[in-house]
Amino acid sequence: MTVTASRGFRAGGVAAGLKASGRRDVALVVNDGPSDVAAAVFTTNRCKANPVLWSEQVMAARSAKAVVLNSGGANCYTGPYGFQTTRASAELVAERIGVEATDVVVCSTGLIGEQLHRDKLLAGIETVVRELSDVGGPAAAEAIMTTDTRSKQVVRQGTGYTVGGMAKGAGMLAPALATMLVVLTTDADIDATTADRALREATRVTFDRLDSDGCMSTNDTVLLMCSGASGATPDADEFTALLTDACHDLAQQLLGDAEGSEHDITIEVVNAATEDDALAVGRAIARSNLFKTAVYGKDPNWGRILAAVGTTEAAFEPGALDVAFNGVWICRGGEPGEPRDAVDLSDRAVTVTVDLKAGRESATIWTNDLTHAYVHENSAYST
Amino acid sequence: MTVTASRGFRAGGVAAGLKASGRRDVALVVNDGPSDVAAAVFTTNRCKANPVLWSEQVMAARSAKAVVLNSGGANCYTGPYGFQTTRASAELVAERIGVEATDVVVCSTGLIGEQLHRDKLLAGIETVVRELSDVGGPAAAEAIMTTDTRSKQVVRQGTGYTVGGMAKGAGMLAPALATMLVVLTTDADIDATTADRALREATRVTFDRLDSDGCMSTNDTVLLMCSGASGATPDADEFTALLTDACHDLAQQLLGDAEGSEHDITIEVVNAATEDDALAVGRAIARSNLFKTAVYGKDPNWGRILAAVGTTEAAFEPGALDVAFNGVWICRGGEPGEPRDAVDLSDRAVTVTVDLKAGRESATIWTNDLTHAYVHENSAYST
């Protein structure tokens, strides 16, 4: 049920011919209220896609009544004509559901650097408007897939309210978001400030800590829409915790479907002087191609981890570092520790723990291994 | 002739059994003077190998009379015992050639996180001392190879003097050097300050701009030894230019032999506000796995380039960026320009040009594509 699990929302997903495969490629999620509070975070990439440029303007009002999303084209680096396509899609949605264009967030994903087929997109919007329903979440989730092998959906129940969500993303996952579109809905009745704070905190410790291939996208959008239809006004902390839990679930689904990956890698950095230090170390490891290929080869190569740690400015003494693979401390004090043979990397899940022995802070980064399939998919497929 | 092309040097390379293949793995280069001026640059990785820790101390005196190198083991993350192995090898060389241990630079390369076989190394030193000769350069160059498919050597003639060199490196190539060992010799008679300045300038625009896989090594060393045997004292600028030319040649040899690569990619960033901006943009592109896999797939995917440029803080307007592949400007003003079909990426050499339109500075970074063979080599081989 995903985004339509929350009361007050209708959604739909249709095939408009933007994808060569003929699969669903246009999605619409409408918030029927009574509240139209919304919050969003966008890519920090300076080269932003047209729908991001549009949606940032929409979200200045901290409200939204609908979001229209398409796959089959990112509408990125397409200039003024591309921006007009985005605007035209928002205007058509607005006209059909009886709101203002500036109430409509727009998201696009797919190939960048090519014009999106405006006529097909607008025709798809005409269709999806007619198919909107309160069970339309799964169709919408399917319509935003690109190289995803499965749709990503989540539902969480709070006390008297619900959080639902859908996501797409299978590569270009990097800090400050990814080629990632996420729509979260809730029927909780919360104000714009609470919604914004909750979303920023939730994304900070979930999507922002996913670093699949170190490449930052141009189209990332995480949108939270709040209908207030449940009448429940949860405590801000409780709502943040539930939203974070939902985001964590979606983030793990993205990780598990990352292009060509064979391992989901959790990098825990502990006993750092600061959380920023822990994050810097975790990201440096997550971005080491040598580390990522080693995990693909089921090789617990801690030397490549130390080489990555050594590129950071985090507080640590090289001769004090401990490293574990799946709980086996094969590096102690910067030297060989327990035998490498004690590590088994045959499971999909791999946990690397780095003990900096420099303080009490910690952070976790999630990444994937670098595989033949990743190279194949990204050398053969234009995104 | 490489390092022995310069008068005043003897070298040799022998097989000591450190490499499982039984190939040459211990090299020695001796400077017979009359001068013992030397300069060196080392990895900026904070997790340094034992030979780097030793050699940094040696080079505090800005002189060196010999360098002993081994492949088959990096002696990195091997603790005090590993450091003693390094010291023992320097002491043995010193004793046999009649100098002090603190005159002997040590370099190691190979697997990290495992003890180097001290007895085999010392036995190899005994052998190589006996084989030292003024035509021993090629054997030395061969003895420092790891995953290199060919040895790297260079000779340049100045006015009345010579610069010779050898290098090893085939991966982990990243700024601030790489898994790279380079020994340069000259029979020019120059002072320590001139040698140091010349080496820093030469490496700044050559080895430091090679970014093959974004991974910074723990063992990188570039050493210049000056015998003064020619009696010629070149102008500092002329010497720097010749040394830079020699380093450029070696750097291009390293690039051409990078693990699994099928394309040598030159990234030119032009019209930047500052050289640092140009470098930041070039490095961001060189580290984009999506860009590198696209080149492997012969896909001139300029969208992935703009996405990488957008992660930097360099001065530019997103809507002003131009991008060319091999001189074809397929992105103009942040939008599609000339047709992609006009670009042919079938040759090994690929040039990407990014015009930031923000100033008059420029910089060039060299990198490789990301291939199936890279993944294979680095998942199957522990380094």
Automatic annotation (TrEMBL), chains A, B:
Localization, UniProt: Cytoplasm
GO biological process, any: ornithine biosynthetic process
Record-linked InterPro entries: Arg_biosynth_ArgJ, ArgJ-like_dom_sf, ArgJ_beta_C
Pathway: Amino-acid biosynthesis; L-arginine biosynthesis; N(2)-acetyl-L-ornithine from L-glutamate: step 1/4; Amino-acid biosynthesis; L-arginine biosynthesis; L-ornithine and N-acetyl-L-glutamate from L-glutamate and N(2)-acetyl-L-ornithine (cyclic): step 1/1
Site features described as Cleavage, chain residue numbers: A178, T179
Catalytic activity: L-glutamate + acetyl-CoA = N-acetyl-L-glutamate + CoA + H(+); N(2)-acetyl-L-ornithine + L-glutamate = N-acetyl-L-glutamate + L-ornithine
A Pfam family of this chain: ArgJ
Membrane-spanning residues: none
UniProtKB keywords: Acyltransferase, Amino-acid biosynthesis, Arginine biosynthesis, Autocatalytic cleavage, Cytoplasm, Multifunctional enzyme, Transferase
Active site (UniProt): T179
Top-level taxon in the UniProt lineage: Bacteria
GO molecular function term, any single one: L-glutamate N-acetyltransferase activity
Residues that coordinate or bind substrate: T146, K168, T179, E259, N378, T383
Site keyed Involved in the stabilization of negative charge on the oxyanion by the formation of the oxyanion hole: positions: T109, G110
Protein EC: 2.3.1.35, 2.3.1.1
One GO cellular component, as annotated: cytoplasm
NCBIfam families: ArgJ, PRK05388.1
Quaternary state and interactors: Heterotetramer of two alpha and two beta chains.
Record family assignment: Belongs to the ArgJ family.
PANTHER family attached to this UniProt entry: ARGININE BIOSYNTHESIS BIFUNCTIONAL PROTEIN ARGJ (PTHR23100), ARGININE BIOSYNTHESIS BIFUNCTIONAL PROTEIN ARGJ, MITOCHONDRIAL (PTHR23100:SF0)
Name recorded for this polypeptide: Arginine biosynthesis bifunctional protein ArgJ
Gene expressing this chain: argJ
